[in-house]
Specification:
Blueprint lengths: L1 H19 L2 H17 L2 H8 L3 E6 L1 E15 L4 E6 L3 E6 L6 E2 L4 E7 L1 H46 L19 H41 L2 E3 L4 E4 L8 E2 L12 E7 L5 E6 L12 E6 L7 E8 L4 E3 L2 E10 L11 E18 L4 E3 L2 E8 L2 E12 L3 E6 L6 E7 L23 E4 L1
Parallel strand pairs: 19-22
Antiparallel strand pairs: 1-21, 2-11, 2-16, 3-10, 4-6, 4-9, 5-8, 6-7, 8-10, 11-15, 12-13, 12-16, 13-15, 14-15, 16-20, 17-18, 18-19, 18-21, 19-20
């Protein structure tokens, strides 16, 4: 009880002394109390403990790879469609998926329905008509050849006669202007021209025969392989029904039966922007990834660039074709792909992260740590990739660069005591080196 009473007594004595003290003494005591309170506040202690911290990296020599990114799909350049205009019931299937076939091999046989028979008969009639036209063209060819040779013999006899040829065998230019000679010469030239023209008629007739035969095959009861390769996507079964297909105008159309894939490497068509197209050249290497194969990367090269391009919704793009270096059986048509096209490669150059380089009024600079201080150093840059940029002057291999500032451990917030550069961004005091 005595101790508890002594504390208030002492406080009362101090208070009485403070009241009786001169005004200046009171002012000094209050100032000391305020300063002491500031120094021991958590805010002050925290600010004293804060030290600037920076994210740093080193300039290093390496290989800079500049790429252009693009996306697209696998085209059908290495496969062909097996289709038919026939309709009816499948009676035989000669092949199965994964089987190799040659051009013209039988794929399946169909018992035609009434529509199928009518289409096949019409196609066969057209084929027969084309064959007859070809035969007539050949008959006319022989007749024109005979007529030409006859007219040529008549002309030669006339030209070599004494009337139109001098005694020394030279041409009599005067008499060869006479109508009889000119007429004989024109008859021969006319038949020769008709004979040569008939050769073109025969070629056209032969093309018509081939076309009509292919049309007949499209409607015939037998389905044939259009190219050599491996059968894929065949779903026909014995007893399957193929219904006749036609467009809105009633013209017969084909329906897909299967596909035949060749051994050629897959081809991917990607779209390039207006900015990227001039950078890409035929022969550029590329790496590709497919949504269907996560974690796998494939290689290829640019084999063509369509410089005409196309416009869609006001955006112009230019198709480029990439051929894979190897055959990949599991890559199918229309799969989506992403490509990194390598446009330039430079070895043994000074590289820094793009985040380390800042630009102000056309001048590039970096922040270099030397002797514990940050110096702003002017640099010259060249090529850049998505993550790195080449430094051609101003830095040496091994220089430590500041890429950004981080928070102190105690505050958890960005250091508010950092000195602000006149070029923007917070960093500690330093020297600008030119």
């Amino acid at each position: 009880m005595k101790l508890s009473r002594s504390i208030p007594n002492k406080f009362t004595a101090i208070l009485k002394w403070f009241i009786r003290s001169p005004f200046l003494t009171k002012l000094i005591i209050l100032a000391v109390i305020l300063v002491a309170g500031w120094f021991f506040t958590p805010k002050f202690l925290s600010s004293k403990s804060k030290q600037p911290q920076y994210q740093t990296t080193q300039a290093e020599k390496g290989t800079l790879t500049v790429v252009v990114t693009a996306s697209g799909q696998v085209s059908q350049a290495n496969s062909a469609t097996v289709d038919t205009q026939a309709s009816g019931v499948v009676s035989k299937v000669y092949v199965e998926n994964g089987q190799k076939v040659k051009t013209g091999d039988k794929i399946a046989e169909i018992d035609l329905d009434l529509v199928g028979k009518q289409r096949a008969a019409a196609a066969w009639s057209s084929y027969q008509s084309a064959k007859n036209s070809l035969e007539n063209a050949r008959i006319n060819y022989y007749a024109l050849q005979s007529d030409m040779l006859t007219k040529w013999k008549t002309f030669m006899d006339t030209a070599q006669s004494s009337t139109y040829q001098n005694a020394d065998g030279s041409s009599n230019t005067t008499t060869r202007q006479l109508p009889q000679y000119v007429s004989t010469n024109d008859d021969w030239l006319f038949t020769e021209a008709k004979y040569k023209q008939q050769a073109n008629v025969i070629s056209q007739a032969q093309t018509a025969v081939n076309s009509n035969w292919l049309s007949y095959q499209q409607t015939s009861s037998t389905i044939y392989a259009p190219i050599s390769g491996t059968v894929t996507g065949l779903a026909l079964q014995i007893g399957s029904v193929l219904t006749a297909q036609s467009n809105t105008s009633g013209t017969a159309t084909s329906q897909k039966i299967a596909s035949i894939q060749t051994g050629a490497p897959p081809v991917i068509q990607v779209s390039l922007t207006q900015v990227d197209t001039p950078k890409v050249k035929v022969g550029n290497k590329a790496t590709l990834t497919f949504d269907a194969f996560p974690g796998k990367t494939f290689t290829g090269k640019i084999v063509s660039i369509d410089s005409i391009g196309s416009v869609s919704s006001g955006v112009t793009t230019y198709p480029a074709v990439i051929k894979l270096d190897t055959e990949v059986p599991d890559i199918f048509s229309n799969m989506t792909a992403s490509a990194n096209i390598i446009t330039q490669v430079k070895d043994n150059v000074i590289l820094v992260p793009t985040s380390a380089v800042q630009t102000q009024d056309g001048q590039s600079f970096v922040r270099v740590i030397k002797n514990g201080k940050i110096e702003l150093v002017n640099v010259e840059t060249s090529l850049s990739s998505m993550t790195q940029i080449e430094i051609t002057s101003g830095l040496s291999e091994g220089d430590t660069l500041v890429t950004g500032s981080v928070s102190s451990e105690r505050s958890g917030q960005q250091n508010s005591n950092q000195t602000r550069s006149p070029f923007g961004g917070g960093f500690g005091p330093g020297v600008f080196r030119r």
